[in-house]
Amino acid sequence: MLIKKIPSWHMSENNATDESVYHNRRAWLKAAGLTGLGLAAGVTTGLSPLSAFGAPITGFPAKRNEAYQLDRDITDESEATTYTNFYEFGSSKNIWRKAQKLETDPWMVTIDGLCDNPMQIDAADLVKKMGDMEERLYRHRCVEAWAMAVPWTGVPLANLIKLASPKSDAKYLVMETFLDPKVAPGQKQGWFSWPYTEGLRLDEAMNELSFLATGLYGREMPKQNGAPIRLVVPWKYGFKSIKSITRFTFSDTQPLSFWEESNGNEYGFYANVNPGVPHKRWRQHEERLLGTNERVKTQMFNGYQDQVAHLYQGMSQDVLYY
User: Fold this and answer.
1) Per the domain annotation, does 136 fall within a domain?
2) Count of structural domains within the chain
3) Distances in Å between the alpha carbon of 36 and those of 30, 39, 124, 203?
4) CATH no. for residue 101?
5) CA atoms of 303 and 292, how far apart (whole Å)
6) Which among 38, 82, 218, 306 has the fewest CB atoms less than 10 Å away?
7) Contact 62, 217 (CB under 8 A)
8) Is 197 or 43 the better-scoring residue by pLDDT?
């Protein structure tokens, strides 16, 4: 007899908003001309609904935090916004046109699990509650051995954690993106387990580099880059930086991430950048810079060793990378 183990961060179906209710509400909003106001979907989960009305995320351009600098030129905006991975819309890099179908206002975000302040809230209102936005220059490294350097706008992930107030037994932050195969044709592919799920250890999530990005190049986040809110963890390979997040769940159990479940022989939970550990399909000792095709040496932890190496002291190298 097959027994399915339910993880501690899973929400039971009887506690979730019925899909038909959600979509009918959105249809009503469109008909009433209120979608731009970000009216929240009906809340039936028992979580605290902190916003009844939302609004587009504003505040661009944000002041740059000069503590985060680059050792290379910023990638041309047209390259960074048209050469993207977003498997929800297909496996091609050129999916930016398809991604325009994604509706990001309103955008409800759920915070739940092992925390004292669970809530459902529109993304714009959540960002306001997390404090002033700032711009940071970060390197971004894909496991496919290409890289870019871009100015992200957003807030530290630690601000969301403080807002949620995790319980003492919370060890991981699990993140989940949207699920809508009618809009995202890639989600019709049955060999992947949708929705896209990622996770961090809580100490990783609290690290100063962990960032919730809402914008890029001084403007709101393009849909193909993960609007309206995405994760950025620059010392890890890009697939860890989950896009278009709809749920943050605090858990005592390490989650099975999207790529782990899809191909555990090639992708691990930690996925820290390491030039000395080759992927089965891509050597990692160097990377190709978008826009110039210049090849440069890959840096340990993508150049952020001083900020994050202490998180992994004493851990096996095999566990940390693949």
Assistant:
1) yes
2) 1
3) 9, 8, 12, 36
4) 3.90.420.10
5) 20
6) 306
7) no
8) 197
Residue 36 falls within a domain, yes or no? no
SS3 172: strand
Q: What does the DSSP assignment read for 261-300?
A: HH-TTT--SS-B--TTS--SSS--SEEEETTT--EEEPPG
For tokens 């390490």, name the residue. Answer: 254
Q: Which of 322, 239, 289, 299 is nearest to 79 (CA)?
A: 289
Residue 10 is encoded by which pair of tokens?
Answer: 């899973």
Asked whether residue 15 carries a pLDDT value surpassing 50, the answer given is no
In the chain, DSSP assigns E strands to 48-49, 108-113, 119-122, 134-141, 146-156, 172-177, 197-201, 211-216, 219-220, 230-232, 245-251, 286-289, 295-297
281 band by pLDDT with thresholds 50, 70 and 90: confident
The neighbour count for residue 318, using CB atoms within 10 Å, is 9
What separation in angstroms does the CA of 54 have from each of 6, 104, 226, 307?
33, 11, 19, 35
Q: Is the pLDDT of residue 310 over 80?
A: yes
Strand partners, 260: none
pLDDT for the residue numbered 321: 65
Which residue's structure tokens are 């809009």?
Answer: 183
For residue range 233-247, list pLDDT tens digits in order: 999 999 999 999 999
In-domain check, residue 163: yes
Residues constituting the chain: 322
pLDDT over 80 at 37, yes or no: no
In a domain, 31, yes or no: no
Mean pLDDT, range 290-316, rounded to an integer? 95
Reading the block at residue 237, the tokens are 């390979």
- In tens, the pLDDT along 121-178 reads 999 999 999 999 999 999 999 999 999 999 999 999 999 999 999 999 999 999 999 9
Residue 261: domain span = 57-321
Look at the block and give the residue holding tokens 């990638």. 75
The average pLDDT across 16-28 equals 40
